[in-house]
Amino acid sequence: MTSCRLCSSQAAYLIEHAKMMLCRDCFIKYYEKKIYNTIMKYGMLRGAGRVTVAVSGGKDSMALLAAMNRLVSEKFPGIKLIAIHINLGIEGYSERCQEIVENVCEDLGIEHVIYDLSSREGYRIPDLKSTPLGRRICGACGTVKRYLMNRLAYEIGSDRLATGHNLDDVVELLFEFYLKGSVEDLVRVRPVSWSDNPKMVTKIKPLIELTERENMYYAMAQGIPLLAASCPLAKGSRMLRRKRLIGLIEREIPGFKHMLYKSHVKRILPRLEKTVPEPSLTECEKCGMPSLSNMCSYCKLVSRLAARSAENST
Ligand code: SF4
Ligand code: ZN
What we know:
Rossmann fold, two-stranded antiparallel sheet, 11 helices, binds iron/sulfur cluster
């Protein structure tokens, strides 16, 4: 029997980068303390009253929701937590995601909003496949989720929007943006995206220093059901290929992901923030939400979809 590093109980989880085996109870404490430390280090909840957690039904966002629920009741009792889930209409997948969200929220007593893309917006994510956007469907799906999550969080009066982005997600983005030399994108990879625009809710990433594996362990330790299958539209995605490659580098250079993230946040980001100007936002002429040009990227996407449907029906 392998013993837990912190007590004598049987170890259940290996924290790879720290080469540390922990039992279930010590792992839960370790995980929640890491989130708490991240929240405090970056002042994520300073002055917050209403926090929306964006939940997909996957292990990361569900682990985030369960941990935030514990932390808020113990350390930030003045904060109201609300979960928002968007049902993307992906057959054989979205139904299960929604079911997990509803069951976990009901078990934990968390107020939640389910937003059904098909009935509310008139399309489903698979409909984008028939448009030129379908070649990079995860990019288009990301645009939809980012826009709607912000709009919904704004409409319910949240002053923070917490997402389940983890260390692996962030390192994958850094990898892509460094390769492309895209400094405007690199400067946006940060633990908190503060906003003083009332229609743009401040985004926080409390899991940014935790790995996908740690989130999965926490979900398992808390009895949160895991999705049996991944999104069928993700097959062959570049993002997954890059994550696999980063996994290989991590095996050769243990601690690579933590090192890349830390050098970005501590050394590179402060310099980029001084030199790369914040984009100036205007209002989308169609929906009135913040936008970089006359029409926001979400309204452009919906217009392209409508144009394609009109072509198909003639
Ligand atoms: Fe959307 Fe791609 Fe995620 Fe599927 S894998 S939910 S298409 S972003
Ligand atoms: Zn718009």
